Amino acid sequence: MTRVLVVEDDAQIVRALVINLKARKYEVDAAPDGATALALAAARRPDVVLLDLGLPDMDGTEVIKGLRGWTPVPILVLSARQTSDEKVEALDAGADDYVTKPFGMDELLARLRAAVRRATPTGPVDGTAVVSTERFTVDLAARKVRLQDGRDVRLTPTEWHLLEVLVRNPGRLIGQKQLLQEVWGPSYGTETNYLRVYMAQLRRKLESDPSHPQHFVTEPGMGYRFEQ
Predict the structure, then answer these.
(1) Tens-digit pLDDT profile for the chain (228 aa)?
(2) Distances 104 to 37, 117, 132 between C-alpha atoms, Å
(3) CA–CA dist 195, 223 (Å, integer)
(4) What number does CATH give the domain 130-226?
């Protein structure tokens, strides 16, 4: 069973989430604050985290950073904060998705399922299983990335999925809408800030000079292309 950690201090929201998740056969743990959330995550090892940003003891972005220090678990932010800057801040800290309150339960559950799918290893790889550049090597079968100096690169499930879509299509321009739908799901198509944040993260981890990328190329207003 998939284990969900709900981090939320509003008792009514927690109750609604717990009822709906358990009805769909999820195992659920709940934390009312950031410190409890970090302790529960370490003890219970959830498969996905639903996180409110407005916690009583710390900002939710600090919880994201705390989790990202040791786990790639998918993190879905639930928040009443609606500005683009606040969404980008949460994504940049390591969140995988952002759901604005008030939210529909069906939409939230669909996004949760998509996050879990992104974190689940796929079946056998067709075609080339290893893609190499002068800077790094991507092993699609093992879901691993290694720099040419031998160091492993740690990616979150969302970073990996975005990388995988691009490296499976070397030299091909992948449109923004297609990338969003491939990585985040069919209900996405306009959240281009997600792509900007995650492409920046891939470049920081994999490019020799992230400000002048050689491998993850932007076609302004159109999409992205992977060049070997």
Answers:
(1) 899 999 999 999 999 999 999 999 999 999 999 999 999 999 999 999 999 999 999 999 999 999 988 888 999 999 887 787 888 888 888 898 888 888 899 989 988 988 888 776 554 445 558 899 999 999 988 889 999 999 999 998 899 999 999 998 888 889 999 899 889 888 888 999 999 999 999 999 999 999 999 999 998 888 999 998
(2) 24, 20, 43
(3) 9
(4) 1.10.10.10
Count Cα neighbours of 84 within 13 Å in the Cβ-side half-sphere.
7
Quick one: which H or E segment has residue 61? helix 60-68
Q: How many contiguous H segments (helices) and E segments (strands) does the chain have? A: 8, 12
Tell me the C-alpha distance between 66 and 180, whole Å.
Answer: 26
Asked whether 28 and 21 are in contact (CB, 8 A), the reply is: yes
What DSSP state is assigned to residue 126? P
User: Rounded to 10 degrees, what is the CA torsion of 35, 40, 45, 46?
Assistant: -90
Which residue ranges make up each domain of the chain?
3-119, 130-226
Q: Which CATH class is domain 3-119?
A: alpha beta
Please give the model's pTM, rounded to 2 decimal places: 0.72
Return the C-alpha torsion angle 179, 88, 26, 70, nearest 10: 100
